[in-house]
Specification:
about 160 residues, single chain, 6 helices, five-stranded mixed β-sheet, Glutaredoxin
């Protein structure tokens, strides 16, 4: 084969490859490729039931604290009070930073976590729960400092002798 014929065949092969690649691209875009489901933001900062793990992870990575509240009785005072926690524990700039997830369970149990740490409580009191949330929040509100100061003062006054 002549050199010129070899060059023409090589050029034709390259053109055919580029042409087929372009056709595959057009057909693929017209047929549509499956896209990953987009993560939908939560509608409320208090959620009843299970949440998609990807949503939970996205909020966690975004700096939110997460409370999983397992309950046995919907009429329990603690069950009713945790609804206010996202508003009570706002960051100093006024932004909500806590998501409460209520899950029915065999016993009362709370798991609170954030980038700042994690705490687990079995059959917690409201005071214990508030203290745990204050310790775990990335940006605790001023009330948490007041709570810690009051608790320290009470402990010191109980330990002092007259």
């Amino acid at each position: 084969m002549k050199k010129q014929t070899k060059q023409r065949i090589a050029a034709l092969v390259i053109v055919v490859i580029f042409g087929m690649s372009s056709i595959a691209f057009v057909v693929g875009s017209l047929a549509g490729t499956p896209q990953e489901d987009k993560i939908k933001p939560l509608e409320n900062f208090v959620v009843e039931g299970h949440v998609d793990q990807r949503v939970e992870d996205a909020y966690y990575k975004g700096g939110f604290s997460w409370m999983k509240f397992y309950y046995t009785d919907k009429n329990d005072l603690l069950y009713l009070s945790v609804d206010q926690f996202p508003d009570i524990f706002k960051a100093p700039n006024g932004q909500r930073q806590l998501i409460v997830q209520k899950l029915e369970g065999n016993e009362s149990y709370v798991y609170v976590y954030s980038l700042n740490g994690q705490e687990e409580l079995t059959v917690p009191t409201e005071e214990q729960l508030i203290e745990s949330v204050c310790r775990v929040l990335s940006a605790p509100p001023p009330d948490c400092a007041f709570l810690n100061q009051t608790k320290t003062n009470n402990t010191n006054s109980n330990n002092s002798t007259i």
